[in-house]
Known about the structure:
This protein has eleven helices and 60 strands.
Amino acid sequence: VFSNVVPFGSWLAYYYDNTSLKGLPKKSKVIAPTGQFGKLSEDNGTGSPASGIPVDNFSAKYTTAKRITAGNYILRTKADDGVRVYLDGKLILDRWNEGAHAGEAIQMSVWDRNDVPANEKDIHLIEVQYREASATSSVDVFLEPYEDAISTSTTWIAEFFPNEQYSGNPIVMGGNNGYSLITSLNYNWAQESPHPSIPVDNFSARFTRKINIAETGTYVFEANADDGVRVTVDGQTLIDSLASTSDRLRKNAIYLQKGSYSVVVEYKEILRNAWINLEHKKISDNKIYYQFNGDVHYNWGIGQPNSDLPADNFTGLFESSRQFAKGDYFIQSFADDGVRVKVDDQTIIDRLTSFSTKIDRALWLNAPAGTHSITTEYQEISNNAGVFTDVVPFGSWLAYYYDNKTLNGLPKAAKVISSANKLTENFGTASPAQGIPADQFSAKYSTAKRLPAGSYIIRTSSDDGVRVSVDGNLVVDRWSSGVQNQESIQVQINDKDGSNVHWIDVEYFEETGPAEVNVEILPYIGPIKTYNSTNYNYTFNEMVDKQMAYGSPKSDGAGLIPAERFEVEYYANPTNFSKDTVSYLQFLKLSDSAGLNVNEINTKILANKGTLTREGQAFVDAGKLYSINEVYLIAHALHETGNGSSTLASGMSQWKTCSDGKIVKDSSGNPVITDIAPEKVYNMYGIGAYDANPNDCGAQFAYSQGWFNPSAAIKGGAQFVSVNYIQVGQNTLYKMKWNPAKPATHQYATHVSWALSQTKRIDNIYKLLDNYSMSFDEPKFLEQPPASELLNLYPSGVIGVTTEAVNFRSEPIIDSSTLISTIPKGTKLQLIGYASGWYQVKVGDKEGWLYATYVDPLNLLQISVSGTLHVRQGPGTTYEVAGDLYNGYYVSGFLDSNNQLIKDDATKKWYKINYKGSEAWIHSDYAIEK
C-alpha cells in the first residue's frame, strides 16, 4: 500500500523493477518541482533512482496536480530513454522508444474543466511515464506558457505540423526555455524531414520571435522559401505567398518605430525540396515607397503612391530578382525626377537629379544566364511624380502609352512586347491599355538591336500617324491621320564607335476608329532573279507568218486597226527586250505567288481604284488558290478596268445579250436585252469581252460565271486565266499573247503590244517591294533576228499640231502610270518619230508620246522614188545637186506663216526642205506629205 499527500506542483514518483510499469511499484517518493515552471527533473546518471530498483531496465510514473490557467502551452520533455505524458488522462506525448534525446516539445492548448465545481476548473492532473533501458537515466518534463517562450528576442520558436493546414499539436523547437535555441531562421532540409514525426512533403511550420528595432526607419524583410511563406509583423501581413511558386525569394518593407515587435513566419512545404530563410535590414531612416518584383510602371501625377507619403520629396526603392537567359539587354528608365538603376549592385544608370520626364538608357551586353537583381532607386522632388524601369531583350519592344496624341508627359501605361523583328500592334477599336482611351492616344516603342553595317528596309503601316528614328535620326515622318498609311524606305546604317548596336524608336498616334501600327526593319537584299529560256524548233519568220495569217494582230487596243508585219516582227521578237528592263517582265513566270501583304496592297496599290479599292484579300486568295502571281493579277485588272473605273468593273445590271462575240437579236432584228437589276455583274480582266462588243459580251460572260461582286470577279477571272493559260503552259505574258508553242492559236489578246503594256504596271507594283524573287522564261526561235528599232525616227525640224486635247504620256502605253499631262487642242510640237500608232514628240523641254490619231504632221515629207532623188540647191533641174535621197527617207519642209509647206513661186512643183542644216529643194512628184 502506498499513500501520499502531495502539495500541488510537487511530483509523486512510483518506481517499478520492470520497463512496462507492471504490478505495484517497488518504491515511491515525492519530488519537489524545480524552476519557474515547476519542472519534473530527475537525473540518476548510471545509478538507481531508489533502493530496490535496478540501475537499468526499470520504469517510473510521476504525477502532479496543479492549477493551470487556460491557454496555449509548450510541453517540453527530455529523457533517456522513453517517455509518455498525459493531461487529465489524455495522452499528449508518446515517445516510448529507447535512446537519449536532446529534448522534444509540442505545442498544446489547456482548457478549463467543465464537470467540476468552479473552484476546481483550473486544476489539472499531469502524469509522466518513463522507462530506462540501459546506461544513463534522466527525465525532464515541464509545461511552459507559449508567450513566455517568445518573451525575449534571443530565439525563434518553431512549430512543425504533419499537414499543410497548421492543425493538431505541433512539434516545437527553440523558444526561450528550449533545450536548443534558434538564433536565426535559416533551414535547408533539402528533401528530408525537419523531425521524425513530420513527413518529408506536405507539412507546415510556424516560426515566431520578438525582434528589437534599435532605430526608427524603413526595414526590408526578405523571405526565401520553397514552397510557400507568409510573414507578419505585429499582426500586419507583410509577405503573403503561401501558394507554391517558382519565385523563391519574396521581399517587402515596413516602417517601424524604435521598439519590440512580434514576427510570425508561416511556412508550407508541398513537394520535393524544402527550405526557409528570413532576414531583415534597415534601408532608410525615412518612410519610403517599396516594391519587390512586379513592373516598375508608375505615373502618380501630382499625387503620391499612398497616404503615408507626401506628394513631393519622397523616395522609392524597387527591387527585383529574376531569371534571365544569356544574351543582350537594354535597360531603360523614364522618371520625373531622379533615378538610379543597378544590376547585381553595379550602377548602370545614375541620375538622381531633378528633371521632368527624362528617358535614360543603358546596355547590358552578354548577360550571363541565371538569377540577377535589378534595383531602381527613385527620388521625387516636386510637381509630377512617376517612374518606369524595364529590362528588355534585344529585339523586343518597350511600349509607352499616353492618354494624349502628342506623347506629352509621362506615359499612363507600359509593357514589353516580345518580338524577334517586327513590331505589330492591332487594337481594333479598343483601348491599348488600362487608363488609355480608344481614340486620341499616342504611344512610343523602343528597341535595341545588333545590326551589322549596311542597307536596310524599314517598312511601316499605321492607322494613324507614325515616325521612326534610328540612333536618334528621323528616317520616317508620316505624322498625319490616315487609314493604313504605309511607308517603305531604304536606309544606310553604320557602326557607331565600332559597335553594331543601334536604337530604333517608333512614335505613333491614333486619331479615331481602328488603331494599328506595324514596323519592320529588314536587311536590304534586293531582288533575286533567275533566267531560263525555252527553245522552239521553228524559225522566227515562220512564227510571224502564222501570226499574220491566222492571229488577227491589231495595232490598237480597240482591235480596229490591223497591225503591219513590221509591228508583229518587233513585238514578237524577244531579242528586242533586254534583261533588267521593264519590258523584260513579259517573260516573268506567273505561276508562283508573290507573297504580298494584304494591307500593303490595299494602301499602296488599290487605294482610290474604284471597285478594286480594298480588294487586296481577293487578289491574295486568288493567287494562293490558283497558283498565279498576284502582282500580275493586280496589274492585269488595273489595266483592263482603267484603274477600277471601267463599265465592267463598276458593274452592269443590263446589257445586250451576246453569243460568241455577236449580239443576239429577236425576230424583229432588235437586240435581246438581259436585265438583272438590282443585281450587277463584274468583269475585272476583260474575259469574254470581244473587241466588237466588249461591255455587252464581257457582262454576258460574267453573268454565266456568277460574278455578282468584285471579289467573285477577281477570283473567278484568276481561275479562268490560270486554268486556260497558266496551267496549260502559257505562264508568261509573252506566251499568253503569242503562244509560241502553238502560234496564232489560243491567244489572250489581239493587240500586238498587249504583253508589253502589262509590264509597266507590274514593274510599278514590284517597286513597292524590297526582297523578292523572280524567274524568267525567254523564248528562243531558230534564225531569230537581232534587236531592231520599231521607232521610225524623223529628221530634225518636223512639226505637228494636236487636233484634239490629248494625253501626253511617258511611254506609248495607255495607263495611269504613264500619264504626264493633257496637251490642249492646237498645240504645236516637235515630232521625233513614229511607232505603232504613236508619235514620239517633244513639248517644250519634255519628251513623251501622243496617240497618232490626235496629231497632224505639218511639214513631214517621205521620199517615194525607185532609185535616187537629187536634192537641188534651187527649185529646178538647172541648179546644182546638193546631195541624194532614197526611197522611204523622211525630210522636213519649210512652213509659211499659215503653216503651209513652201513651194517655188513659179511652178509650185518644188518643196523647200531642210537638208543637212541648209535650205534645199526636191520635186514634189517624188515626195509624199504625211
